[in-house]
Specification:
By secondary structure, the chain is of the alpha/beta class. The chain has 15 helices and 16 strands. The structure holds S-adenosylmethionine.
């Protein structure tokens, strides 16, 4: 048993079975033993994100943010909030590129990296010192209480938010709690622990089939609601893997989408080594759109990462891919890395980009080409 497993087991012994969301929250974010509370060096052993592939990912995002800034009237200060910024690698790519290639936008940029892991905050602070000294970068453990004008974005944050697990049994929604049997964590089917779960499915007109497993991402709904409240004018951009509800809860996903990642292997063994493996669930973009709408965020569009990056890159034939003075071998290597980001069987089609807006007069964004021809 890991130290966290001991703590969780004793909590279950004292208070009875736990909602899976509570179990997952501790596994990922327990201040001492949580998977994301540890320094990031161990993370590459388990998975890579788009940011790790090549700085082109951040550079093309920077182009999209600069266009948003223009659509909002090129304000003197543009707050760019990255939620779940990790060690600040993506922030570095974006800020370095803006400083070098889009100086007018950089001048207005107030980048806030939001991260709740203390170890990661320390790494990000060191990495981005120079932009911090220039007043273009700050770090926070919470989303700023007001974002007067700007954009809030995240990459692979939503899939790391805790979810409740449910099963549809004998014509009713039941919850799968985490119990304990002979010292082992086990599934315990029980009545739902909160009516927010019923509301989650009925709001989206989702009826599960008999025996179907699914997740309810209540924390993501709360999160987008709060973002809608805090953003006064601008955009929300979310990159993650997932689907709209009609696909997420269809016949291909009858076991749900929760997965555990350890050592580049994927499993459904959610209870193995708590705190030492990553846990994720596919993002429900319909829920983000619906709960966002309630908080004043209008959906601009949803597209694949492939569509998004191609549309932005084609504008200058992917010139942003290369650095000055690179050899031909390095350029070939860069093209291969780009391929992973946009290839349908790489990250390109699995990852989706959702853009929402509030009070923005122009929602014609280069990254969403299909929507404006
Ligand atoms: C899967 S990682 C993604 C990191 C980074 N965005 C990337 O693409 O490499 C998710 C990150 O979000 C952070 N996180 C999760 N929930 C958060 C919250 N409510 N507020 C701020 N950060 C959070 C975690 O600590 C972790 O660093």
């Amino acid at each position: 048993m890991t130290p966290l497993a001991e703590l969780l087991a004793s909590r279950i012994r004292r208070h009875g079975p736990l909602p899976f969301a509570d179990f997952m929250r501790e596994c990922l974010y327990h201040p001492l033993h949580g998977y994301y509370s540890k320094a990031e060096s161990t993370r590459f052993a388990d998975y890579y994100t788009s940011v790790d592939m090549h700085p082109i990912f951040g550079r093309l995002l920077a182009r999209q943010f600069a266009e948003m800034w223009e659509h909002l009237g090129s304000p003197a200060e543009f707050m760019l909030v990255e939620a779940g910024a990790g060690v600040g690698r993506l922030a570095g790519h974006i800020l370095d590129f803006c400083a070098a290639k889009i100086p007018a936008f950089y001048g207005a940029l107030r980048y806030v990296a939001v991260e709740r892991s203390a170890a990661r905050i320390e790494q990000a602070t060191q990495r981005l010192q120079e932009h911090g000294h220039n007043g273009h970068f700050a770090i926070a453990i919470e989303i700023p209480s007001r974002i007067p004008v700007g954009c809030l974005f995240s990459n692979e944050l939503m899939d790391a938010l805790p979810v409740h697990r449910v099963i549809f049994q004998e014509g009713a929604l039941k919850e799968i709690l985490v119990g304990l049997d002979a010292g082992q964590f086990v599934d315990v089917v029980a009545p739902v622990s909160t009516c927010a779960i019923n509301d989650y499915f009925s709001t989206q007109s989702i009826v599960l089939s008999e025996g179907q497993h699914a997740e309810a991402s209540l924390e993501a709904c709360d999160w987008i609601t709060e973002v809608g409240r805090r953003l006064e004018r601008g955009y929300v951009l979310t990159i993650d893997y997932g689907h709209r509800a009609a696909e997420l809860f269809d016949d291909h996903h009858t076991r749900g989408t929760l997965l555990a990642y350890y050592d580049h292997r994927v499993s459904e063994n959610f209870y193995a080594t708590p705190g030492e493996q990553d846990l994720t669930a596919h993002v429900n973009f319909t829920a983000l759109e619906l709960w966002g709408k309630r908080a004043g965020l209008d959906s601009v569009g949803l597209t694949s990462q492939t569509g998004f990056l191609l549309a932005l890159g084609q504008r200058n034939e992917f010139a942003d891919l290369y650095d000055d003075g690179q050899s031909e071998t390095e350029r070939v290597q860069a093209r291969l890395q780009l391929k992973t980001l946009i290839h349908p069987e790489g990250m390109g089609e699995r990852f989706q980009v959702l853009i929402q807006q509030k009070g923005a007069a122009d929602s014609n964004l280069t990254g969403l080409p299909a929507l404006h021809g």
